[in-house]
């Protein structure tokens, strides 16, 4: 009996020691746990990394803003060590990841699959610099293209004239201004529906997933799917924390990061856009305009200044734009 008790005690000690040996990484998401990116992409990714580490890692998702509710706060959480990993929207931190805002140029990113693959290639080739090098980049993505979501019909560029309109990034705001609308920045995803309800804005540039996640469909009934630029997105990690991990833990993170993460993100994001659009379109009060070629050309001409300004205002702007456009074309043709 004493021998058995000793064995049980030893097993318990081993289990406890093993549990404490695992590094727990706090992964922050401002989205609710049931929202698209958090539920379908980030949470499965965290589970895959944890499993691949053979007990060296436990990547724990803190969703719904439990470590910090403000989407604009996520980068700071990682830099201050409150979170080890976070999903970050660069547009909420102007100037920090400037080269990556090339994805916001209208009519450039066709979908999240090609856009995300191209974004990682740009980073891997060293064309995204600045603050990209101050953190451990686990994923560099682009969303499905943002389009017009409004409280009133918007078919042509002229219909945007005078409307207060929100966008999630600086280049997208330039496009709004070019359309004769009043660009409104500083409104994060969770605040959009409330801002529309209060009459602060008449609409926003967004994509289907955000419409559903942030309950915009409760206040918006008019959509125009003209592709006015994607939203750059990052999954970043505190570099010091990454460097402190054992090799097995680092290898598990690396296995599911980079190009593999871009592929996962793009495929799931794009599929969800199709499914979500169908759910939103089922509402008989909803009107969706898919511009024909003639109308698409009219929109493209109206927002062309956004591309021109981006190239002029960024060092090596033309080089970055050309390289990104080539990467988009290559990844689009390989689909």
UniProtKB/TrEMBL annotation:
<dbReference type="InterPro" id="IPR018389">
    <property type="entry name" value="DctP_fam"/>
</dbReference>
<dbReference type="InterPro" id="IPR038404">
    <property type="entry name" value="TRAP_DctP_sf"/>
</dbReference>
<feature type="signal peptide">
    <location>
        <begin position="1"/>
        <end position="21"/>
    </location>
</feature>
<dbReference type="GO" id="GO:0055085">
    <property type="term" value="P:transmembrane transport"/>
</dbReference>
<keyword id="KW-0732">Signal</keyword>
<protein>
    <submittedName>
        <fullName>TRAP transporter substrate-binding protein</fullName>
    </submittedName>
</protein>
<dbReference type="Pfam" id="PF03480">
    <property type="entry name" value="DctP"/>
</dbReference>
């Amino acid at each position: 009996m004493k021998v058995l008790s000793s064995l049980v005690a030893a097993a318990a000690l081993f289990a406890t020691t093993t549990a404490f040996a695992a590094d727990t990484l706090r992964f922050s998401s401002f989205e609710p746990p049931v929202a698209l990116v958090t539920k379908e992409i980030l949470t499965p990714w965290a589970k895959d990394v944890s499993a691949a580490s053979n007990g060296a890692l436990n990547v724990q998702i803190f969703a719904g803003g439990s470590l910090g509710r403000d989407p604009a706060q996520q980068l700071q959480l990682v830099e201050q060590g409150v979170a080890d990993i976070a999903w970050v929207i660069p547009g909420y931190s102007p100037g920090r990841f400037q080269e990556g805002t090339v994805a916001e140029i209208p009519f450039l990113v066709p979908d999240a699959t090609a856009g995300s693959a191209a974004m990682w290639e740009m980073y891997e080739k060293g064309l995204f610099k600045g603050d990209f090098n101050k953190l451990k980049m686990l994923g560099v993505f682009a969303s499905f293209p943002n389009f017009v979501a409004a409280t009133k019909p918007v078919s042509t560029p002229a219909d945007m004239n005078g409307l207060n309109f929100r966008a999630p990034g600086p280049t997208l705001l330039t496009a709004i201004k070019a359309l004769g609308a009043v660009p409104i920045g500083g409104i994060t995803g969770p605040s959009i529906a409330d801002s529309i309800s209060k009459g602060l804005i008449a609409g926003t540039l967004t994509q289907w997933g955000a419409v559903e996640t942030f309950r915009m469909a409760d206040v918006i009934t008019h959509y125009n799917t003209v592709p006015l630029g994607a939203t750059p997105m990052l999954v970043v990690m505190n570099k010091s924390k990454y460097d402190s991990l054992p090799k097995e833990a680092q290898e598990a993170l690396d296995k599911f990061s980079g190009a593999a993460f871009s592929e996962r993100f793009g495929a799931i994001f794009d599929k969800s856009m199709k499914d979500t659009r169908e759910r939103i379109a089922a509402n008989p009060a909803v009107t969706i305009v898919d511009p024909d070629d003639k109308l698409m050309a009219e929109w493209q001409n109206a927002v062309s200044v956004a591309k021109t300004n981006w190239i002029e205002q960024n060092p090596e702007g033309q080089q970055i734009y050309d390289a990104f456009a080539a990467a988009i074309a290559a990844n689009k043709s390989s689909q």
